[in-house]
Amino acid sequence: MNTVAITDRAAELEAPFVAAVRTAMADRGVSQYVLARAASTQFGLTVVTNTAVSKMLTCTGQRQGMRLGHALAFASVLDVDLNALVPASRCTTCAGKPPPGFICASCGLTGGKP
After folding, report:
1. Cβ proximity of 20 and 85 under 8 Å
2. For residues 48 and 36, is the Cβ–Cβ distance under 8 A?
3. Tens digit of pLDDT per residue, the chain (114 long)?
4. Domain boundaries, the chain
């Protein structure tokens, strides 16, 4: 995969990821401040502030890039599997939906409980 393809894929995943994080926050009653503070104290992400979280979770305007460490911290703080926050893979073998109880040999996605 070349740099352009990776950049395109990252841009394609950003909006659905942000929407999933915002939904998880709303479902759990977690504010940006609480998310930022927990990510900072639990994971030592000192650059995470309420303002940084706001920029990361805004799909318009000036954005600060989301690092994998932040995504993992947010998922952990929200008690959500990171895979649940990232849109399903466009794997040509399983189309992002392997059968229950199976793991796709091409992309590694798990098909859930049988």
Report:
1. yes
2. yes
3. 556 566 676 777 777 888 888 889 999 999 988 888 888 888 887 656 667 677 777 655 445 556 788 888 889 999 988 888 887 656 778 777 788 888 888 777 777 766
4. 3-80, 88-114
